[in-house]
Design goal:
By secondary structure, this protein is of the alpha/beta class. It has one domain: NAD(P)-binding Rossmann-like Domain (Rossmann fold). 42% of the residues lie in helices and 17% in strands. It has eight helices and nine strands. The protein has helices at residues 17-28, 40-52, 67-76, 101-128, 150-169, 190-194, 199-205, 215-226; strands spanning 8-11, 32-37, 56-61, 82-85, 132-137, 175-182, 236-239, 244-246, 249-250. The strands form two sheets. Strands 3-2-1-4-5-6-7 form a seven-stranded parallel beta sheet, sandwiched between helices. Strands 8-9 form a two-stranded antiparallel ribbon. Helix 2 (40-52) links the parallel strand 2 (32-37) and strand 3. It is globular, with a radius of gyration of 17 Å. Bound molecules: 2-hydroxyethylsulfonic acid. 2-hydroxyethylsulfonic acid binds at residues 139-141, 149, 152, 182-184, 247. Belongs to the short-chain dehydrogenases/reductases (SDR) family. This is Oxidoreductase. InterPro entries: KR_dom, NAD(P)-bd_dom_sf, Sc_DH/Rdtase_CS, SDR_fam.
């Protein structure tokens, strides 16, 4: 169980994929992990699994786009040493000419405003910890664009800029700001959500790629960055599968 001396890590979007894997790994690394996501049943089951494994976790249902709920969540925490802003995702892959503005708005709301809400709400506790860490899960999409990606690329650029700017603004305070930018990661939900449940379109994203990254691969880089000595700030970590040289250059055995 957690004690006053246990560092607390909050993970958003912890119900599946990279968030769930990060929660497991940070708990195994000795953190008390607070799992947040909209799907309460999932995070409660994951918290139970982590506790049954002898580690420490709690679950708190949260929609990061709901500022009042985020503020109430922040007020409920005894402490916060690590925040992993993982909640986010892609919706649609239409070209600019036909993309749905509603999808763009939703992606901006979750990936940027959601990250802003939780970061703002927890920054006082992270600073008070004397050794805080903010992780922003951006994406290689936050660093260069690709056809059909504009809405997601724009949102992930927003997340990247939030991390970069925050690092400038709080230098001198005891809080690190780490950006992790994954490339192709095969999770159970990312592509399926993007293509609105179309399993064929989702499968094509990974077609012929022998080893896309897994959620565990990315969680490993997050956990590594978070567990470096306090004075070491991994500003930006870009991680791709070996088969992916850029957003548009992927080796496929087809
Ligand atoms: C996911 C990477 O290539 O689907 O963040 O935009 S990509």
């Amino acid at each position: 169980m957690s004690t006053a001396a246990t560092r607390t890590a909050v993970v958003t979007g912890a119900s599946s994929g990279i968030g769930a894997a990060t929660a497991r790994q940070l708990a195994a690394a000795g953190h008390h992990v607070v799992l947040t996501a909209r799907r309460k049943d999932r995070i409660e089951a994951l918290a139970a699994e982590i506790n049954a494994a002898g580690h420490s976790a709690a679950a708190h249902a949260l929609d990061v786009t709901d500022r009042a709920a985020v503020d109430a969540f922040a007020a409920s925490l005894e402490r916060c040493d690590v925040l992993v802003n993982n909640a986010g995702g892609a919706l649609g892959a239409e070209p600019v000419a036909t993309g749905d503005p509603a999808d763009w708005r939703t992606m901006y709301e979750v990936n940027v405003i959601g990250t802003l809400h939780v970061t703002q709400a927890l920054l006082p506790a992270l600073t008070a910890s004397g050794d805080g860490t903010v992780v922003v899960l951006s994406s290689t999409a936050g660093h260069s664009t690709y056809e059909g990606g504009a809405g997601y690329v724009a949102a992930k650029n927003g997340a990247r800029v939030l991390a970069e700017t925050l690092r400038l603004e709080i230098v001198g305070q005891p809080v690190r700001v780490i950006e992790i930018a994954p490339g192709m990661v095969k999770t159970e939900e990312f592509a399926t959500t993007r293509f609105r449940g179309d399993a064929d379109k989702a499968a094509k994203v990974y077609a012929g790629v022998a080893h896309p990254l897994s959620a565990d691969d990315v969680a490993d880089t997050i956990t590594w960055a978070v567990t470096r000595p306090s004075h070491v700030n991994i500003d930006l970590l870009v991680v791709r599968p070996r088969a992916q040289a850029s957003n548009t250059k992927v080796h496929r055995d087809l």
